[in-house]
Design a protein that fits this description.
Largest sheet: 3 strands, parallel
Number of strands: 3
Number of domains: 1
Shape: globular
Helix content: 40-55%
Order of helices and strands: EHEHEH
Strand order of the largest sheet: 1-2-3
Distance between the termini: 24 Å
Low-confidence stretches: none
Amino acid sequence: MRLGFYMGYAPPGTNPLELIALAQEAERLGYDSAWAAEAWGTDAVTVLTWLAATTSTIKIGSAIMQIPARTCRVRGGNVHLT
């Protein structure tokens, strides 16, 4: 069985250090993946970028991403980065 860590939405003003600490602890405990979501006013890609840059083995994914809210260029860049 693989366990995933779901951190939900990161509203504007969220301290990235708190989310990074949670993801690093999940990684230390052997969780397989970390998931973020977005809604109007939040951004999952930024959060997932923070996690990818500060963890080494945990997989990252977006539980919810608002594709229509992004330009074609940003969508393409996001797909390439994640």
